[in-house]
Amino acid sequence: MEYPKNQMEFERAFATDEQCLTFLSNIRFENGFICPKCNHNEYWVNNRGIAVCKICKHQHSITSGTIFHKSRISLVLLFRVLWFIVAQKNGVSASGIQRILELKKYSTTWTWLHKFRRLMILPNRDKLSGTIEVDETLVGGKRSGKRGRGAEGKILVIIAIEIQGKKTGRVRLSTIPDGSKASINLFIKSNIERESIIITDGWKGYADLKKMKYIRKIEEKKVKLDNELILPRVHKIASLLKRWLLGTHQNYVSHDKLDYYLDEFTFRYNRRNSKSRGSLFFSLLKQSMNQKPIDYKDIVNSTKIQ
pTM of this prediction? Predict the structure, then answer.
């Protein structure tokens, strides 16, 4: 499918809700439309976002079962929000989008940003492989704290980064409740291919790696960040993460929602060399058609399950 490559093409392609609906219908029926009632393969889209079978007139909503279902905000505006998210290299805050797009309610903007963040991690994505450096850092607050338990007001975040010679590859981040073997093992198994080489420090939380079919290499060379010593490549990611949270979100990130911000950071870092904003926009829009509806109350009460 064709998608806009720049701002001017975006403005022309999605100037009306009808254009947005047509684009979503092309995504939804990318492999062809089949009427669930008569099995006919031709349809048209009315101005309410309904796909109507040309033979039996059965109606099927283009946006049903997606994050756009029953939205009170126009698709034109929501497409602009999504484009704005991918067009900004360092991300955007809810207040920034509310100001620029002149949205009335902050809670509405915040809700849609969180809906779109849920699109940023693809299901069944490939695990990290090769040589990976893994370490943890404390995020938030100003107090120092112990590694195994964290510190009051801080969140323990584990970071894994692929090493590719002098460069770095893909990254994975997640909050963990503590630095125990159980917490670390779950993250490792979920994010790193077996038989990969994992570089860690001497922390006892990584003691099971050999038993789990990984090759562990212990590295004690560390770099200081916020009064904690962490491995050098993880230090780079942790520094970028903390500057991003402070600069874009002013550190106003609640503990139970931090993982969704980590997902956004991961999405942006792993696509840092992408030259096409349009490709990222199209990728998220395709994901949106597979994302179940979620409302403000669900988002406020949700905590990501690792």
Answer: 0.85
Strands 155-164 and 131-139: antiparallel
CATH architecture for residues 131-253: 2-Layer Sandwich (3.30)
Residue 202 near residue 184 (C-beta atoms within 8 A) = no
Concatenated DSSP letters for 261-305?
A: HHHHHHHHHHTTT---HHHHHHHHHHHHTTSPP--HHHHHH----
pLDDT digits (tens, 9 = 90+) for 89-117: 777 888 888 888 788 888 888 889 889 98
- Return the domain boundaries, the chain: 1-118+258-306, 131-253
Query: How big is the chain, counted in residues?
Result: 306
Alpha carbons within 13 A on the beta-carbon side of 140: 19
Please choose, from the candidates 156, 126, 131, the residue with its C-alpha nearest in 3D space to the C-alpha of residue 233.
131
pLDDT tens digits, 198-243 = 999 999 999 999 999 999 999 988 999 888 899 999 999 999 999 9
